[in-house]
């Protein structure tokens, strides 16, 4: 029957995650090693720890990935919102990485499923950053004008893909054939382009920021990384080292303690030099390399309430109590109750701006250049909501709603 073959948003998200994972594995072979080691670590933790699944079923954790992409214009962001919307992924949170050290000229959100059962079926999410071309701390008026012109002339997402996306958002289903076509076009849109890079233009942007060059120096976008989830990131870090893969020098986020895991811990291995074709100023094409993409891995813990987060941001993990019961009683973290009345943590499904900036920074090729004291362009959650033309969800509202629902409040 036609209905039996219909593709739902959930199915489309699962297929997209799998297809991008396959693509990225062919593009960045060390990613495949990372996935293998992550799966081994998860199996070992599951075997040794009876409570291993308290933060998510082994099926979910093993399938779990987040991706990162970087865009140049508000129009591109609005388009990608339609593509992810078709996959049941909606914008959550606003992150301003221009305030970080070193400052990165982007603002970001994450597209992800909102409901617990959707997350359980497939938790794929994409951290999505947008270049702020009119921020005078990074770009002078002339470079802004050139960037704007360059970005306006490119097309990241073909019309057919956007039409299929809109159809899915309207109908909540596509035919099997339409679904396949969607996946094919979406995967191609996020593949590394073989088109030559204009050397002079790329270099000018790179002087300001290698993130600006990665975004605005080429006529396409690509997955920057795809991140599996592990149940023990310290063990993962150790095993990757043993395999001779050079990791960045630290794990971002809260340190390991005997307290319940909170928020998000992440680490990455260095950007790999990938062969890329360049068009030189004399018109010749040469093969050189760029280091912009990398591997990242993460471990997730319980989501903190605004009060818990403030305490963590101000004083570190030591400011939080030692048990789930205390975290719950003091309203510092989110929990629901299981059938036996025990506490079940609500997993943190979002990102941390400090860690995100650290991940960006660990992979910058140069210092970049920014002019303190210059005008920063206004970018905030309301601005981004207007660009998206759809609701920008507040992560705390989602966690609070889940807690209330789970307790029958
Ligand atoms: C995004 C960096 C942030 C994370 O997991 O916090 C990020 C990027 O490099 O484009 O992916
Ligand atoms: Ni990431």
Automatic annotation (TrEMBL):
Entry keyword annotation includes Oxidoreductase: yes
Superkingdom, taxonomy of origin: Bacteria
SMART domains, per database record: DUF1338
Pfam families registered for this protein in UniProt: HGLS (PF07063)
Key words, A-Z: Dioxygenase, Iron, Oxidoreductase
EC number: 1.13.11.93
EC class (word): oxidoreductase
Gene3D superfamilies with a match to the protein in the record: Uncharacterised protein PF07063, DUF1338
Cofactor(s) listed: Fe(2+)
Family, as annotated: Belongs to the 2-oxoadipate dioxygenase/decarboxylase family.
PANTHER family recorded: 2-OXOADIPATE DIOXYGENASE_DECARBOXYLASE, PTHR39479
Record protein name field: 2-oxoadipate dioxygenase/decarboxylase
């Amino acid at each position: 029957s036609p209905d039996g073959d219909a593709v739902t948003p959930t199915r489309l998200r699962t297929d997209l995650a799998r297809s991008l994972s396959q693509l990225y594995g062919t593009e960045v072979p060390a990613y495949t090693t990372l996935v293998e080691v992550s799966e081994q670590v998860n199996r070992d933790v599951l075997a040794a720890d009876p409570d291993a699944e308290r933060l998510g079923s082994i099926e979910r954790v093993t399938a779990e990935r987040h991706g990162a992409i970087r865009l140049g214009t508000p129009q591109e962001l609005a388009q990608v919102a339609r593509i992810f919307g078709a996959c049941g992924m909606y914008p959550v949170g606003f992150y301003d990485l221009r305030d970080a050290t070193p400052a990165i000229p982007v603002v970001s959100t994450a597209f992800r499923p909102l409901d617990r059962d959707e997350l359980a079926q497939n938790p794929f999410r994409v951290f999505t950053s947008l270049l702020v071309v009119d921020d005078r701390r990074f770009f002078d008026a002339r470079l802004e004008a050139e960037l704007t012109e360059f970005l306006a002339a490119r097309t990241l997402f073909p019309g057919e893909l956007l039409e299929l996306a809109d159809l899915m958002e309207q109908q909540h289903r596509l035919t099997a054939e339409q679904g396949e076509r969607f996946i094919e076009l979406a995967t191609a849109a996020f593949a590394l382009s073989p088109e030559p890079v204009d050397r002079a233009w790329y270099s000018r942007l790179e002087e300001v920021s290698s993130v600006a060059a990665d975004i605005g120096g080429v006529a396409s976008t690509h997955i920057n990384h795809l991140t599996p989830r592990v149940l023990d990131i310290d063990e993962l870090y150790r095993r990757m080292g043993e395999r001779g893969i050079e990791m960045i020098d630290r794990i971002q986020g809260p340190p390991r303690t005997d307290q319940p895991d909170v928020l998000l811990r992440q680490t990455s291995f260095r950007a790999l030099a990938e062969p890329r074709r360049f068009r030189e100023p004399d018109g010749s094409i040469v093969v050189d390399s760029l280091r912009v993409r990398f591997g990242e891995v993460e471990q997730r813990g319980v989501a903190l309430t605004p009060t818990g987060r403030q305490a963590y941001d101000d004083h570190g993990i030591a400011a939080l109590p030692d048990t789930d019961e205390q975290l719950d009683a003091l309203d510092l973290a989110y929990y629901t109750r299981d059938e036996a009345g025990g506490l079940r943590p609500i997993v943190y499904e979002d990102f941390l701006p400090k860690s995100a900036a650290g991940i960006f920074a660990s992979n910058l090729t140069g210092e970049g250049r920014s002019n303190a004291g210059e005008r920063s362009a206004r970018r905030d959650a309301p601005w981004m909501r207007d660009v998206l033309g759809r609701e920008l969800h507040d992560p705390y509202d989602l966690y609070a709603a889940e807690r209330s629902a789970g307790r029958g409040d």
